[in-house]
Inverse folding.
C-alpha cells in the first residue's frame, strides 16, 4: 500500500461574546468522531496580546469540550495566524497537532518549550473557500483540481508518505448544484482505497506518535 493519506475536513467555527458564551456552537452530536478543533472567532492571533493568548486557547478548548463531550487534539487558528508563543501555549494546553503551518505535504514535528507538536498539512489550494469563493472556480474546475492533486500525489507517494488534505465547507461545495461535481471527485479518490489511507488528522497524529525517531521530519530534533 502506498502511504498517501487523503483527508477531508469540514471545519466548524467557534465564536463567542465577551461574557464567555458561545452561541454559534451547535448541540452536542450523538456520536462524536472528532471534536471540533478550530478557531476562536473573528480576529488574528498576531493582534492579541501574548498574555491573553493562553486565556483564549483555554476558553475555546473548554467550550469545545463542553459541547462535544471530548477535548480537541488539534488546533487551527483563524487566518492560520500565530503569535511568537502560540505553539508553546497549545502544547502546554494538551494539543498534539496544529494545522496552521502550510509548509509541507507531509507532517513535520515542531519544537516548543514544552516538547514537540506535530504540524499537520492543511490545503491552501484544495480548499473550496479559496478555490470557489476567492478564485471563482466553477464546481467542475474545483472537482478537477481535487482529482489532479490526488493523482499527482499518489504517484509521488511512491517515494515518501504524503498527506493529501481536502478542505470542504457545507456552505460552499455543500450546495446542491455543486454536490454532483464534488461527488465525482470523491468517488475518484474512493476508487483507490486499496492504495491509500482515507482518514482523519487525529488518526494520522496517533500513527505518527508511535513511529521511531528519524521517520518523520523533525523527530530527531523536536
Amino acid at each position: 500500500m502506498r502511504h498517501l493519506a487523503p483527508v477531508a475536513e469540514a471545519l466548524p467555527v467557534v465564536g463567542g461574546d465577551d461574557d464567555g458564551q458561545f452561541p454559534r456552537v451547535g448541540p452536542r452530536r450523538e456520536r462524536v468522531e472528532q471534536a471540533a478543533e478550530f478557531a476562536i472567532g473573528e480576529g488574528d492571533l498576531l493582534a492579541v496580546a501574548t498574555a491573553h493568548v493562553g486565556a483564549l486557547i483555554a476558553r475555546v478548548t473548554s467550550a469545545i469540550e463542553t459541547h462535544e463531550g471530548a477535548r480537541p487534539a488539534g488546533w487551527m487558528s483563524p487566518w492560520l495566524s500565530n503569535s511568537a508563543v502560540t505553539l508553546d501555549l497549545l502544547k502546554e494546553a494538551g494539543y498534539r497537532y496544529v494545522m496552521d503551518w502550510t509548509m509541507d505535504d507531509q507532517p513535520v514535528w515542531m519544537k516548543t518549550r514544552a516538547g514537540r507538536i506535530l504540524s499537520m498539512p492543511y490545503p491552501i489550494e484544495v480548499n473550496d473557500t479559496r478555490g470557489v469563493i476567492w478564485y471563482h472556480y466553477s464546481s467542475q474546475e474545483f472537482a478537477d483540481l481535487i482529482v489532479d492533486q490526488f493523482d499527482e500525489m499518489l504517484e509521488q507517494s511512491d517515494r515518501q508518505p504524503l498527506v493529501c488534505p481536502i478542505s470542504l465547507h457545507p456552505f460552499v461545495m455543500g450546495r446542491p448544484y455543486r454536490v454532483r461535481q464534488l461527488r465525482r471527485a470523491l468517488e475518484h479518490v474512493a476508487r483507490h482505497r486499496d492504495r491509500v489511507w482515507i482518514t482523519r488528522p487525529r488518526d494520522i497524529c496517533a500513527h505518527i506518535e508511535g513511529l521511531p525517531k528519524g521517520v518523520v521530519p523533525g523527530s530527531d530534533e523536536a
